[in-house]
Amino acid sequence: MKKCFAILGDHAVYVTPIDVKKIFIMNPASPISLNGMIKARVCRLMDFTGLSRDIDNPLLTGDFWTAYREIYSGCASFITLATR
Prior knowledge:
The protein is flat. Strand 1 (12-14), helix 2 and strand 2 (40-42) form a beta-alpha-beta unit. Strands 1-2 form a two-stranded parallel ribbon. The protein has four helices and two strands; from the N terminus they run H-E-H-E-H-H. The longest helix is centred in the last third of the chain and has 20 residues, at 64-83. By secondary structure, it is mostly helical.
C-alpha cells in the first residue's frame, strides 16, 4: 500500500470492498471514484476476504503456498463480490 501511494500520490484513493461493490453496481467501466474525482482505486486483496491485512511476501517468509492460498482466496472473494 505504501509503495502504491508513493508512486501514485494524490492520483489514488483507497477504497473498501463495500465501495468496490457500489462502483460495480453504478457503472463497472467508470474510472470515477466515489468522491467524484478521477483517481486510481487502490485496495488490498485480503480486504475482500474480511481480513484487512497485506499478503506476506513469500520471498521474505519462504512460504509460497500460504501466499498462493491468500491470493487465491482474495481473488475468489473479489469475483464473488463483483458478480453478485
